[in-house]
Amino acid sequence: MSRKSFTGMLVIAAASATALAACGQAGQSDGSGDGGGGDGGTTELTMWTHSAGNPAELEVYEQIISDFNESQDEYEVVMESFPQGAYNDAVVAGAAAGDLPCLLDMDGPIVPNWAWAGYIQPLGLDTAITDALLPTAVGRYQDEIYSAGYWDAALSVFARQSVLEENGIRVPTVDEPWTRDEFDAALVTLQGAGYATPLDIGAEDTGEWWPYAYSPMLQSAGGDLIDRDSFLTADGALNGPEAVEFFEWFQSLFERGLASDAGTIGNEEFNNDEVALSYTGVWNAMGSLDAVGDDLLILPPPDFGEGPKIGGASWQWGISADCSAADGAREYLEFSFQPEYIAQFADRQVVIPATAEAEELSEMFGEGDPLQPFVELSQEFALERPPTPAYPVISSVFERAAKDIMNGADVQSTLDQAVTEIDTNIESNDGYGF
To answer: Residue spans with biased composition (Gly residues) (predicted)?
Structure first.
């Protein structure tokens, strides 16, 4: 399973807001299949999801939809699923054609862009629901809630307790994580102990994995992808002294052979004891538990100076801007956030349940369960990617710059060029509403 399975692949949405003419909501149906109106008929709520190819996720949606449709006679939810790789393109095309469904899911970081572009409307769910969710499971633009999700994902450093003990390496904790110097020294020690490349950092992956995985390290070091006070520039955040120092260290990992981009996507190198440490996500945890058993440690990420950080926000649900049955869409979403459904999503997909009640109902994430450490990591360290419509551009620019640095490019000039590209995009779009 790919490291990016639960973070998604972003595409750049349209550069200006689109006037949406219709939402794919089929109006009143008399049950004859012609879509016509009739007394006593139900309103069809069309729903798009990126989950084609993920039967475990689709099975839960099918159960929710069946339960909701049977629970009342005013609305009927009809789902259409798309392959994840084609999904965002389908939404952008649907928006341009005025043919979006009422209900659609979206990767958390794309929410501000789609809100700014006019694809989706403020969510308007009962605040008792959104207040109970993990903060990173709620999507916002300009302090307005536009989406909400049933789960999140979290990153960790996987290790074998026996390997750390044999090499005299301290086991870090949430309260006392490794410092950067400790982490670096541990990697050097493990390389000397026979691990040719001691750290699998996932650099062979592409796309959204790069900002999801590595920008939290940058933020832990005191840098960022953008100035979060104004959201109008990346200058000083992405190319300041803290960012330069971090990326010089990042580059050195590859120069010294402590990390590599020659591995395979997933966690097989760690499971096979070919690497000592793996920077990976909750979605790979069950495979590593099967391979390593009780020797597996699920560790916090290092503290690069400003406290550990990990990426947050996964797939969430929203309502299209011109959905003519928005009240029905909200009724369905409120129905869907029942704890038992959230717990099913968590256990079947190996993702973190977004509410405490669902956490306790789950088989893997409750108190004392094997994957409970991920809940603590998410609660303590998760940081959303910048909630700005510029994020798709930021994501793409960051990936290219970080890869260039990995391959030996000059750090300062590479980051300066990335800032220029990001700031030019923001200026050309009049600040994206900020």
So the answer is: 30-41
Q: Specify the 3-state DSSP secondary structure of 421.
A: helix
How many residues are given for the chain? 434
Count CB-CB contacts under 10 A for residue 18: 18
Please give the structure tokens belonging to residue 203. 């650099």
pTM for this predicted structure = 0.89
Residue 265: burial class (beta carbons within 10 Å; 0-12, 13-18, 19+): middle
The CATH code that applies to domain 155-312+390-433 is 3.40.190.10
Neighbouring CB atoms inside 10 A of 173's CB total: 10
Choose among 194, 167, 193: nearest CA to 182.
167
Question: What gap in Å lies between CA 37 and CA 44, rounded to an integer?
Answer: 11
* AA letter at 10: L
Per-residue exposure over 136-160, b if at least 16 CB sit within 10 Å of its own CB, e if not: bbbbbbbeebbbbbbbbbbbbbbbb
- The DSSP call for residue 18 is -
Residue 40, Ramachandran bin (φ over 0: left; ψ between -120 and 50: alpha; else beta)? left
Three-class secondary structure of residue 334 per DSSP: helix
Task: Sketch the domain layout of the chain as residue ranges.
Answer: 28-150+314-351, 155-312+390-433
The C-alpha angle with vertex 107 and arms to 156 and 224, in degrees rounded to 5, equals 60
28-150+314-351 with 155-312+390-433: one CATH topology? Answer: yes
CATH architecture, range 28-150+314-351: 3-Layer(aba) Sandwich (3.40)
